[in-house]
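Follow-up to my earlier ticket, as requested here are the two runs.
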Amino acid sequence: MGFSRHQFVYSVPWNLFLLSVGSLLFAVGFKAIALPHGFITGGISGVALLLYYLTDRLTVGMWYLIVNMPIFLVGWKFVSRRFFFYSLFGMAASTAGMDLITFTIPIHDHFLAVLAGGAIMGAGGGIILRSMGSAGGNDIIGVILNQKFNLRIGSCYFFFNVVLFSFSFGLLQVELVLYSLAMSFVLSQVLDYCLSIFNQRKMVMIISEQADPVAAVINQKFNRGATFLHGQGTYTGKAKKIIMTVVNNYEVKRLEEAVFTLDAEAFMITENTFNVLGKGFSSRKVY
């Protein structure tokens, strides 16, 4: 029996690899860009940075470890033990990265640092959350809210950070807080993009007088399923078959060519969709 994609995604080596690479990227953005500019990164790492700035005791990595401990208990209770142990590894990798990285990336302009730091940390966070674990902290809270209420993890990050930065206005320079808020926005957008990029699909609805031949092409040429929705034209009152299907991004133009070759008068609607679960697409992620 071959090694299926599902088994690969859930395998321990693959998840440890994602957690390690993502943690390294996040630590580079955090330690080599955000910290030298005095930014607050947001999330629990931002709380750790704020405590480091205020106390000048311990290291940023140690503060990150301390603040994370109670949140891990919540992850154990509300998600799963597998998620807990993977997240424990992710937190350890992030903590080690923050303490071991001693170089800085020579970016002198604050605005460029916002873009670079937010993009690198967002990419790292997105790779981490592609695994079956997290790096602890706000990741755990975001995963719980996503599982319970389908809230986007990047949005959870941003709203948490708005609250965090509100408390920072009296402690840090206003300009640094605003730069930090902008970096948090970039981070959340890149993180959400990394989470959705491999699941992005196109939902297509086709209204055609050649509905049966079009459906046959979708089945045979594209090896995709399709569904007939039965409707009625408001102008003619004529019954119509509406074809609904989902394809990959690179298949849209090929489908468009096939449809209009069969019926030049067809009507085709294409919509972005970011989470398609089922046979031929993604499987439901169970932590």
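Run two:
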Amino acid sequence: MGLDTSQFSWKDITAAIGGKILDGITEVSYSKKATKELLYGRGNKPHKVLTGNFEFEGKITIWQSELIAMEKSAPDGEILNLEFDITIAYIPKDSTDQVIKTLKGVQITDVTEAMAQGDTHMKVELPIIFTDIKIHQ
């Protein structure tokens, strides 16, 4: 079996929140990390690596109009109270290779809106935390 060297570009990405495709998304990033600790005992070298809790975080950058739509669907209009899943599909047009991942239990931690002279539109960066990354086969 050969090594799959497929690469995806931004044009291959579709992101959806609650089943709604986001046309106004300009950036997405996400990460998972685990707390790791060395277990020491006799001697001066570790005996084992211990794994603790996992953490998931990232950010999405969207147009202001997407933010307004999310605020309208949020409980009491408060986007920081909104919980949703984000599905990210990497599907190139000229290939059968695809990767679909779902960020589960996403919540936004901070909203900052800003514009500067000369801007033609507003992009809003939304830091997120979530509970898991599901990879669909």
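The only thing I checked on run two: The radius of gyration is 19 Å. Let me know what else you need.
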